[in-house]
């Protein structure tokens, strides 16, 4: 897999990193898309359309240091093709993490499900368990006390997207290219019901103002007890590497949203 030559975006209180989608190896020059103005009225109208609930699943992996190209490809291929072996998975995106994370995760897998029930069945599916046992766990390592985790961490949350087949299934021209940005947050308990939600709302509203940079953004409260240290997750699909850079170096994010989140986030050891 090809990694981005970008520095990791990391504050003291949360992790964030871009990953390539498995279907995004063909990179196009899309400089022209950045000429559109923020706050496009047509985009605001689209944001007001009927919404559909979806369940987002994030799996972070710690691959072995000396993992070969063929071993990596085998592991990611099996994870990606899991969607064809079981019902309920509506979209998959995976790849190698750009830069370094504090906990040394190397790869990330994003899956979208229609419901929590489908996600539960996924975790229990014999084919998926076999993929983990034969193709994932042997290629990963764990630095945690619980050796059964074997370098895997899962975060799950419920969110909403536009109630249309293309955004739900992440299909169409907009999803053919780009990078994923995954943000895991630890909010202090006292702030979760108030300031934390306000910060997430501000982030969501800001992403909606830049359709020229961002294809889709989802966020929600983590309900996976195995990773309860993280309270919330965010996944943003950017149109390109350049779009990613423009958004996160903008003053509205750097001086506004980022500071707002840091004020209500807990430190991570």
UniProtKB/TrEMBL annotation:
PROSITE patterns for this protein: S_R_A_B_BARREL (PS51502)
Domain Stress-response A/B barrel positions: 55-157
Pfam families in the cross-refs: Dabb (PF07876)
Source taxon at top rank: Eukaryota
Subunit: Homodimer.
Record protein name field: Uncharacterized protein LOC18610591 isoform X3
Organism for this UniProt entry: Theobroma cacao (Cacao)
């Amino acid at each position: 897999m090809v990694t981005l030559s970008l520095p990791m975006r990391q504050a003291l209180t949360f992790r964030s990193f871009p990953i390539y989608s498995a279907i995004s190896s063909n990179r196009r020059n899309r400089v022209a898309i950045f000429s559109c103005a923020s706050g496009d009225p047509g985009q605001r109208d689209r944001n007001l359309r009927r919404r559909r609930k979806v369940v987002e699943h994030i799996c972070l992996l710690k691959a072995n240091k000396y993992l070969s190209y063929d071993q990596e490809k085998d592991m990611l291929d099996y994870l990606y093709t899991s969607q064809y072996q079981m019902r309920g998975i509506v979209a998959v995106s995976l790849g190698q993490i750009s830069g370094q994370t504090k906990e040394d995760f190397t790869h990330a897998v994003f899956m979208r499900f229609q419901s929590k029930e489908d996600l539960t069945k996924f975790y229990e599916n014999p084919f998926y368990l076999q993929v983990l046992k034969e193709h994932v766990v042997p290629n990963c390592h764990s630095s945690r006390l619980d050796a059964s985790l074997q370098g895997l961490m899962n975060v799950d949350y419920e969110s909403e997207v536009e109630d249309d087949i293309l955004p739900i299934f992440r299909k169409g021209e907009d999803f053919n290219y780009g990078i994923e940005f995954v943000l895991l947050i630890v909010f202090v308990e006292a702030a979760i019901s108030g300031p934390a939600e306000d910060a997430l709302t501000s982030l969501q509203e800001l992403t909606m103002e830049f359709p020229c940079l961002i294809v889709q953004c989802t966020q929600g409260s983590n309900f996976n007890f195995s990773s309860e240290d993280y309270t919330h997750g965010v996944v943003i699909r950017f149109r390109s590497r350049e779009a990613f850079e423009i958004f996160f170096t903008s003053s509205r994010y750097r001086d506004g949203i980022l500071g707002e989140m840091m004020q209500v986030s807990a430190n991570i050891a």
